[in-house]
Amino acid sequence: MNLSLRQNIWKSDESGLGFYCVNIIESSLVNPDLKELLKSDILKEREFKEISSISKVLQGNPKYYGAFLKEKIDVTDFEKLDFDGLKHNLSEYWKDKNWGDDLPIFRKNFELAASHLDSFELSNRTFYLINAEKIDLTKLMDPNFFTYFVCIISTEPKSDK
To answer: Which of 7, 10, 76, 149 has its CA 20 to 30 A from that of 48?
Structure first.
């Protein structure tokens, strides 16, 4: 399966404490499943905007996407959700008492990222959510520079996007 990047949006907030990345990708297959997408390297660091200072510190030059070591994550690390389930999951996550000053930044970045998806019918899509705080620490880069890191992959039935 071939994947083609159609749009890359990477924005950092003015404080430098948070950012979001939206990649709109087309697949050569209609209805690719998550396993196929991961095998086809959907999580590419160059589309995430590789942070050169991070790669200088990591041992053994591992392949990573944000906080995640790509060779260690698999489909079982993701939660499969519909759009309502995704919103509920994130609203529960936002209730964590350890957020501190980062919560408004994270919420704003999520809303900004979602605003770039207005041309898609989000209620028809399937979402795959992976959260760095909820997976085995051996699947995260060491040292992990991200206090919070969430990745969402979304597919739409009968679509290549």
So the answer is: 76
Closest CA to 63 of 5, 133, 141, 148: 141
Quote the mean pLDDT of the chain: 82
Are 92 and 133 in contact by the 8 Å Cβ rule? The answer is no
Could you tell me the two tokens for 122? 């989000």
- pLDDT score recorded for residue 49: 53
Distance CA 20, CA 115 (A): 12
Question: In which band, very low, low, confident or very high, does the pLDDT at 75 lie, cut at 50, 70 and 90?
Answer: very high
| Contact between residue 3 and residue 26 where contact means Cβ atoms under 8 Å apart | yes
Highest mean pLDDT pick, 40-49, 53-62, 104-113:
104-113
Tokens of 77: 């690390």
- Rounded CA-CA distance 15/126 in Å is 32
Helix (H, G, I), strand (E, B) or coil at 8: strand
Q: What is the DSSP letter of 19?
A: E
Q: Is 160 helix (H, G, I), strand (E, B) or coil?
A: coil
